[in-house]
Amino acid sequence: MLNDTAAPNGLFTDDDHTARCVWCRSTAEYQRYHDQEWGFPVHSDTRLFEKICLEGFQAGLSWLTILNKRESFRAAFAGFDMDKVALFDEADEKRLLLDAGIVRHRGKIASTINNARRAQELRAEFGSLAAYFWGYEPASGSRPATITHQTLSGVTTSPESIALSKDLRKRGWSFVGPTTMYAFMQAMGLVNDHLEGCHARERALQARAAFVPPRKP
Fold first, then answer.
1. Rounded to an integer, what distance in angstroms lies between the CA atom of residue 96 and that of residue 183?
2. What φ, ψ does residue 11 adopt, rounded to 5°?
3. Where along the chain do its domains lie?
4. Which residues are catalytic?
5. What is the pLDDT of residues 63-81, one digit of tens each?
6. Long-range CB contacts for residues 205-214, cutoff 8 Å, separation at least 24
């Protein structure tokens, strides 16, 4: 059960007096995602590809909506195996448009299939998606000074997310705007936006300290 009082520093506490970033207070599933995934470094190409696709599906929606449908998305998109998704054809697009378990948006479905093919190209060039994406980690690993409009943590873009978005678009990716890419970087641990006082912040910092970013061969 949640304590109904959110602290002015952007945190809230539950009955066990565990402090968390206030954006995750609405459901237990959101809190599990915050505690166990958000901000922790990821090197798995499958997870990186999944997340960038789901961030694209989130555009115009809440992350909670996508999180609640994540297992259905995984089933629909072959576990986000980029090699399998890259082989999807028109029949698969029609199948996905009839799948009530996912967000049935024709443009986002087509984008995911396109991006799987672009992901294969990145992997061929850099050795892995991880080697490519971790090349955009900010030097400080922390949030930028300039805040534009609100996302989960209050920050929407950074110079690195803008540069990442620009490069991906040049490479033919879609639904990869700067705000979407900053959310991706937050979730995959390229930045740690757990607030000071959040119980997960130090664990995320420790995980990053032990993490060796993959590099292009």
1. 25
2. -115, 160
3. 2-40+195-210
4. 33, 55, 63
5. 999 999 999 999 999 999 9
6. 207/40, 207/41, 208/40, 208/41, 208/141, 211/41, 211/43, 213/41, 213/43, 213/130, 213/131, 213/134, 213/137, 214/43, 214/127, 214/128, 214/130, 214/131, 214/134
